[in-house]
Hints:
The chain is 57% helix and 12% strand. The chain has 189 residues and is α/β, with parallel strands linked by helices. Its EC number is 2.7.4.3. ATP binds at residues 10-15, 127, 168.
Amino acid sequence: MRIVFIGPPGAGKGTQSVRLAKHLNVPPLSTGAMLRDATAKGTELGIESAKFMKQGKLVPDKLVEQILFQRLDDPDCAEGCIIDGFPRTVPQAEALDQWLAERRSPLEIVLELYVPFEELQRRLAGRGRADDSQEVVKKRLRAYDDLTRPLLDYYQGRSKLHRIDGLGSPDEVFGRMLAAIKSVEPIQG
Length: 189
C-alpha cells in the first residue's frame, strides 16, 4: 500500500508514520532523511541538494523528486511505502501521481493528521527549542497551512484524502489511521 502522510509540525506525524510503516511492513520514506542520506553518501543528487541546504534554501522540487523516485524504485518499496514530507505542493503531487501511474502503482490513500492550531502552538512551545518562540511557531503554522491547503484540496478532489483526528493518545490516533486504511483496503494480519 502506498500512503502519503501529511501533517503540520507538532502533530506527531513522524512518530505515527514510522509506527504505521512498521505495522504494514513497508518502509517509511522521509524526504528530509533521504536528502540528508544522499548528502552524506556524496551522491550526485546529494551534492547538488547540499548546495541549497547549506544556504538555508529549499531544495528545488525536481531534485527532491529525483531522490524520492530513485528510492521508490528500490525493491523494498515494491509492496508499498509511507511517504512523509512529500509532496508539499500540487505540482509535486501531480509529478508523484504521474510517476506512480507510469508504473501502475497508484497511491491508495493520503492521511492528513489534523491537530487544531491552538494545540499545535501548545505542543511546539512546550518543546523548549530556541526556534520555537510563540511568534515563530505561529508563522511556521500559518506558512504550513498556506502551503498545504491547495495540496489537501487536490487530494480531496481525487477522493484520496482522509483526515485523521490527531488529538488523544498515540494509540487512539493510530487506531483512527488503521480504520481509515481499512476503509480503502483491508490490512492483512
